[in-house]
């Protein structure tokens, strides 16, 4: 006990001072190790920042090992620096392995940057989503049908990566599906997990396209297991459906050029099919690159949300016959029961935040 008190007294009250300073500089390995330590501790955060830090630290400890062996001639110095060098080397190898493990193919990497990264979706969560679709990119050749009206069962959910797909019903054009949009979001939302159904529209590829697809049962199991992924899909599907509804709203014109809100169920009797001129105009508008969902500042509305908007055009459209029901209206009644019951669909401003 007295020896410990004496040792503490010597450290605190009577500190030892160096009496004979060495005027000979240490070897170059010592100073080089200090430089690498300085550079290593200037690293940032994240995986690449950790690789930077442990890379320079491992080189610094290696230089310290060389200095302890050649100049200091201290066995303890050599042992400690070798041990620290091996630890840093092991950590560096582990980080590089994790980085290679988290890499995706070009299509899935671009999908993450465009959709999930702006929403700050964790990479581990994205890996679960990709794993659910088995990391497969499926091709869709030109003029090939993805779904046939009344025949194809609704057993999956697909997301278009490239190309353009035309949606039609009874031979009438409805709208296009462009890259980074769901192919069958209305059909997915129209059924409950225990229900079965068939497509009420036909989807045909107008150009060579590719898409990813999740099987219905596997995706429902994932959504039931992971609440965060369920909320993420709810946001993406709600945004996608609202975009399709607002696109269809541009095609709904009553007599004398009056334009109404698509959410009003009492307007079914005034719907008319889209003309060829309108179809060509829509294609011309979307020839430019489409801004993906992720580039939007937030999941917000693209048009004012009002109960009923009436605008008088300088050149009103010709009136359409009352007896001619549009394939557009049939599609809405079939795939959006909320409209038929008088309930407004989820507006973009009502989408829950992640």
From TrEMBL:
It is a multi-pass membrane protein. Pfam families: POPDC1-3. The keyword Transmembrane applies. GO terms for molecular function: cAMP binding. Signal peptide: none annotated. It comes from Python bivittatus. Keywords: Membrane, Transmembrane, Transmembrane helix. GO terms for cellular component: sarcolemma. Belongs to the popeye family. Gene3D superfamilies: Jelly Rolls (2.60.120.10). It is found in: Membrane. The chain crosses the membrane at residues 21-43, 49-70, 77-97. Residues 26-251 form the POPDC1-3 domain. This is Popeye domain-containing protein 2 isoform X2. Residues 304-354 are annotated as: Disordered. GO terms for biological process: heart development; regulation of membrane potential; skeletal muscle tissue development; striated muscle cell differentiation.
């Amino acid at each position: 006990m007295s020896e410990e008190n004496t040792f503490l007294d010597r450290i605190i009250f009577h500190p030892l001072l160096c009496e004979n300073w060495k005027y000979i500089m240490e070897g170059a390995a010592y100073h080089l190790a200090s430089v690498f330590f300085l550079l290593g501790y200037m690293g940032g955060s994240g995986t690449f920042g950790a690789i930077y830090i442990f890379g320079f630290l491992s080189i610094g400890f290696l230089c310290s090992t060389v200095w302890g062996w050649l100049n200091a001639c201290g066995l303890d110095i050599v042992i400690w620096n070798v041990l620290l060098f091996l630890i840093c080397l092991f950590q560096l190898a582990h980080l590089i392995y994790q980085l290679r493990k988290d890499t995706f193919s070009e299509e899935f990497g671009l999908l993450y940057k465009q959709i999930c990264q702006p929403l700050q979706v964790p990479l581990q969560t994205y890996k679960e989503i990709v794993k659910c679709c088995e990391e497969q990119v499926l091709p869709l050749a030109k003029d090939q049908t993805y779904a046939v009206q009344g025949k194809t069962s609704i057993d999956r959910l697909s997301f278009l990566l490239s190309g353009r797909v035309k949606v039609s019903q009874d031979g009438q054009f409805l709208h296009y599906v462009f890259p980074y949009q769901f192919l069958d979001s209305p059909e997915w939302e129209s059924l409950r997990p225990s229900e079965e159904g068939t497509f009420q529209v036909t989807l045909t590829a107008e150009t060579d396209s590719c898409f990813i697809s999740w099987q219905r049962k596997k995706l429902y199991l994932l959504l039931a297991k992971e609440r965060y992924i369920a909320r993420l899909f709810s946001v993406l599907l709600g945004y996608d459906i609202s975009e399709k509804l607002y696109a269809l709203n541009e095609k709904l014109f009553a007599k004398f050029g009056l334009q109404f809100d698509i959410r009003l169920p009492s307007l079914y009797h005034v719907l008319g099919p889209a003309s060829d001129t309108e179809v060509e105009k829509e294609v011309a508008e979307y020839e430019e690159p489409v801004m993906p969902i992720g580039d939007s500042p937030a999941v917000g509305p693209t048009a004012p949300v009002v109960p009923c908007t009436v605008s008088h055009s300088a050149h009103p459209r010709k009136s359409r016959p009352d007896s001619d029901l549009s394939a557009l209206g049939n599609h809405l009644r079939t795939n959006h029961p909320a409209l038929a019951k008088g309930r407004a669909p989820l507006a973009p401003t009502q989408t829950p935040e992640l």
